[in-house]
Amino acid sequence: NPKPGDLIEIDRPLYQHWALYVGDGYVINVTPVDEGVPSLFVSTASIFTRKAKVKKQLLKDVVGNNRWRVNNKYDHSRTPLPVEEIIQHAEELIDQEVTYDVLGSNCEHFVTLLRYGEGVSHQVSDTGRAIIGTTAAVGGILLAGL
Question: Which of 17, 76, 109, 122 is catalytic?
């Protein structure tokens, strides 16, 4: 069971989506601003967008049919901020647009910044960049066909 302030890692095709658990079944996470994109293409669309919106949503709605887990993987090398501070800062950001960059300011950077005061994403490694590049190319072809 997640506790407030925990990082939630959600398995999506080709990448992991990250959210911050805030209690009572809710998470705060970033989503692409263009919600008119069909859900099949949301992960692809997020590669191309430069803005995201901070949302508070039910964990079960964000997860859908995907697998998820609590993953505070940076606790061994970073000290989490006090839970009250994490939640307060996260809630202050709800409904705001934030800069989104899959390589430098993604959903994992967002939640680790809230938890630790520092945005970190090991998902964006050289291997991750290659996968993202391939996904972007395929996504571009798919979106061009719409």
Answer: 17
Query: Any idea what the CATH number is for the domain that residue 97 is in?
Result: 3.90.1720.10
The residue segments making up the domain with residue 109 are 6-36+43-120
Q: Does the active-site annotation cover 76?
A: no
Q: Is the residue at 28 inside a domain?
A: yes
Number of domains observed in the structure of the chain: 1
DSSP track, 5-68 = T-EEEEEETTEEEEEEEEETTEEEEEEES-TTS-GGGHHHHHHH-SEEEEEEEEHHHHHTTS-E
pTM of the model: 0.76
Question: For 121-134, how does the pLDDT look when each residue is reduced to its tens digit (9 = 90+)?
Answer: 876 554 444 444 44
Active-site residue identified among 76, 107, 109, 122: 107
Q: Is 107 among the catalytic positions?
A: yes
